[in-house]
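Hi everyone, sorry if this is the wrong subforum. Our group has a chain we'd like a structural model of before ordering constructs, and none of us has done structure prediction before. Sequence below.
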Amino acid sequence: MLDVETAQRKVLATVRPFHPELLPLSHADGLALTTSIVSSVDSPPFDKAMMDGFAVCADEVATGRAKLRVVERIMAGMVPTRRIERGEAAQIMTGAPLPEGANAVVKVEETRQEGDWVEISSDSVQAGTNVIWRAMVLKAGEQVLAAGTTLRPPQLAALAELGESQVSVRRRPRVAILATGDELVPYDQTPGPGQIRNSNELMLTAQVRGAGGQPLPLGIARDQEAELAAKIRQGLQADVLVLSGGVSAGQLDLVPKMLAAAGVKEVFHKVEMKPGKPIWFGELAASAGGQPRYVFGLPGNPVSSLVCFELFVRTAIRKLMGMSPPVCPAIRAKLEGEYRSRNDRPTFHPAQLRHTEEGPRAKVVAWQGSSDLRATVEANAMIHFPAGERHYNPGETVEVFSW
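Answer:
Right subforum, don't worry. Here is the predicted structure as tokens:
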């Protein structure tokens, strides 16, 4: 049976990233660059004031005291019309270009203006005080962002400032979500005897969206070959098909059989982990001119589905989109409280992760097994405990994966 790392490597070796395409910057939030971005301009493009005040020559107010004649008022968006000479100052607003002859800005709180004169009363004024020089942030020709960078609000703003109206990225994958089982009813219906609500659909939909994909919920397929085959054919129209349930060894666990009948080739089935051991992964070869399709069969218990998604499906989505790194790295955190691990295989235990001034801290959440959604409600991460019996003391370092 595969271990988790080997299974992830098989996912990475199987999944091929989408082809790059140009998209407007306004449509690229959450996508990853396929090429590095090099600036064609300096940032800022001119010497400018960092706050409201008066532009001066620092030599004239080196002691912090001076009385200067105000010769111009420069607003943001304006261009200075004259040079500052000795004995002169220009009133200036935040973001406005610095006039020639000036090399510092005295903030308005340290001045008193009377008519055309301003009196400076400051502790110290030096060249560069309250000024950001041209190209101090970025020089033309410098790399702004590396290929593989995920575009979030700060990166989008930086590219907009540089005039990058289009970017080369890989699109969002369409991810079909199909729950299987005779016991399931839609989550907005009242279950009958022996039935449960389809909670996995909403959970997986949110996880797909959070990973950057476009979720396509397909509802429920009963444990009947004809119905399951039809739903699988529908799901294989998407880039990725994620099923929950029907992948164990029970009499009605039909998913592997029906996927094989649909032409999906198994890459692996079962991974040495808890929860989520029965996970299934396969590939449908590309038709002429098309893209391959990737299929994950997740165990039906909700915590198993959640964990398997985070470790494997998210990895595939990130690989398709060209995100770097494709496998989300573990966070090394200090354990809060004692814990005794008694596991016959590596376990991903629900946990509370918090970030402190001293570094990340993780606390085990009470957990009753793979059907215990209550534990995941109280958790925001999972601690990886290796197989075997071991006592963990407070403060020991553990590997944590956030979700």
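For your construct planning: The first strand starts at residue 21 and ends at 24. The two ends are 26 Å apart (CA to CA).
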